[in-house]
Each structure stands twice: as C-alpha cells, then as structure tokens.
What we know:
alpha+beta; 2 domains; four-stranded antiparallel beta sheet; 42% helix; 12% strand
Amino acid sequence: MLERVLTYLEQKPTCPHCKVELTLCHAPPMHVGDGLGWGSEFLFICLNDECPLFVNGWDFIENQYGHVGSYRHMEMPNSQENYSMMVGSKYAFTGSAVDIEDLRRQSSRYQAERAAAAQLYGCVAAKDISPVIHLLTDDSADISVRRQAANLLVELNDLACIEPLRNHKFLDPHLEHAVNLAISQILNNHYLRECPYCAELIKIRAQLCKHCGKELAQT
C-alpha cells in the first residue's frame, strides 16, 4: 500500500473542480455510506477552501437537506474511484494530513525489511549475519520473520551478533528470551563468557578479566 500511495503521489493528483493538488490524508475509520470502511488506509482529498465544490456545497446541502455541511473532492490512491465527500465543517480532514517524509521513511524501512527477509534463506551458507541482525533490531519488522532470524543465530555462530543484540531493547519478551539463549550457546561454542563487570568477552576458564582486571567467579 505504501508503495502504491507514494507512486500515486508522484503523479501530483489534482482536484478536477479547482485544479489544486490533492492532500494525502488518513482515511476515517468508517465509510459514511455503508459502514464497511474505505479499503484503504489513505485518501487524497482537496483541502482547498476556495474550491467551487466546497464553496457551493454549503448552500446545496442546506437547501436539499436542511443542515450545515459541504463537500470535498476525494480520490482513492491508484484507483479510478473518486467521490464528493460530505463534510460537516471546514476543518474536516485538516488534522489528518499525512507527513509525506514520514511515509517515505516507513516505505524505506519496509523495503529494507523485505530485502533482509529475502536474504535469510542463504545467509548461513554465505556466513552473512547482517540480515539476521537487521531483522532482530527492527521492532517494526514482522514478528514471524524475526523469529526465523533468531533461529539462525546458533547456526551462524558469529560473535559479531552479540554487541548489537545486547544493546537492543527488545519489546517482545519471547523474542528476547530466544535471542539470549542463542547468545549463550554461541558463547559456549567459542569457550567464552561475558565479564559481569565490563561485559567484554573473556575465556570461560579465566580467573581475572583481561579488560577490567576484576576477579571472576568460576563457572
């Protein structure tokens, strides 16, 4: 959906009534006609208060229906669907305009997630830990894909994953637990442990930390 919206945005759609560029807005939760929703998270709406449709709509609705209201032109992204949407005040939709740069950042993040997910299948053979780290440290990524990434940690057996994963605050406790178990196994595979004082990696049998000099309890 994000890609379709951004593609449509590049075409700079304009209102057929006033030729002013349409504004990308968040769609309201319910469709005013059938109550089933719009089928789109976003709508393109003319927010020009001088648009003839909006200006003339006040008198038309008062004369036809006897209440206050007007119309704004609305289009569905990448669709031939467009409507004259009834609004109750001139402020309708003015607070729902979308931050385009934020939308582009969301799209870039999603594209990076898709690329990393596609690389998971060959990352063990390629000994490439980067897509696994990318997905595990992206809290917006699909949780099922992140779990797949966590399951590959031990097989990759790469110490390079420890610092970025230890420094990431996981929002999902189950995923965090899986990652911690994997890190423990990787450390054991390399006969290493983390110093409880400075967090540097040291040999399991070390009695003193070579980094901070602290005396260590034997495991």
